[in-house]
């Protein structure tokens, strides 16, 4: 029986939860403008601007010290717009070789700090390794954390 592993990363963002969630859903194709160090392109299918159960994201992004970008295709397998959470399940791309199953969960939780509307961004990954020699995908979680920091910084600049 396959063993499911889990990794988590959190980031305390300074921008509002609503703004961040909108960028990760309806405005996702604009992400390269707000996180150009990480995201080269983000396509959402169907392209009607609505993210829903079954929507497909095609991510073209930079991963660590790799000389070229990688492409990953994910399907939205859970969505809760009210509570600002999404689950992306990888079905094609670089992660599928080492991890036969890989899902990312994103939760954006509104917080109040110093009278400002901030948020806590939680990324979780649940995955199965192809074999015991496959490393934990800490590099991927680091990329998600760096991406979130870059996005938060640039969203604040646009306010």
From TrEMBL:
Residues of the Bet v I/Major latex protein domain: 2-158
Give the GO terms filed under biological process for this record. Answer: defense response
* Xref: SUPFAM superfamilies: Bet v1-like
Question: Which Gene3D superfamilies does this chain map to?
Answer: 3.30.530.20
* Superkingdom of the organism of origin: Eukaryota
Q: Which Pfam families match?
A: Bet_v_1
The UniProt entry, under PANTHER family, shows: POLYKETIDE CYCLASE/DEHYDRASE AND LIPID TRANSPORT SUPERFAMILY PROTEIN, POLYKETIDE CYCLASE_DEHYDRASE AND LIPID TRANSPORT SUPERFAMILY PROTEIN
- What family does the database annotate? Belongs to the MLP family.
Q: What is this protein called?
A: Bet v I/Major latex protein domain-containing protein
């Amino acid at each position: 029986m396959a063993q499911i592993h889990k990794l988590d990363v959190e980031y305390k963002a300074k921008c509002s939860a609503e703004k961040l969630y909108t960028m990760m859903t309806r405005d996702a194709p604009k992400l390269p403008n707000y996180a150009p160090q990480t995201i080269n392109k983000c396509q959402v299918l169907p392209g009607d601007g609505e993210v829903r159960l079954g929507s497909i994201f095609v991510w073209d992004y930079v991963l660590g010290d790799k000389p070229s970008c990688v492409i990953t295709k994910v399907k939205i397998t859970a969505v809760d717009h009210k509570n600002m959470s999404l689950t992306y399940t990888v079905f094609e791309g670089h992660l599928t070789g080492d991890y036969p199953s890989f899902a990312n969960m994103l939760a954006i939780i509104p917080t109040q700090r110093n009278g400002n509307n901030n948020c806590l961004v939680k990324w979780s990954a649940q995955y199965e390794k192809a074999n015991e020699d496959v490393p934990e995908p800490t590099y991927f979680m680091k990329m998600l954390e760096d991406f979130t920091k870059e996005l938060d910084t640039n969203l604040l600049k646009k306010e």
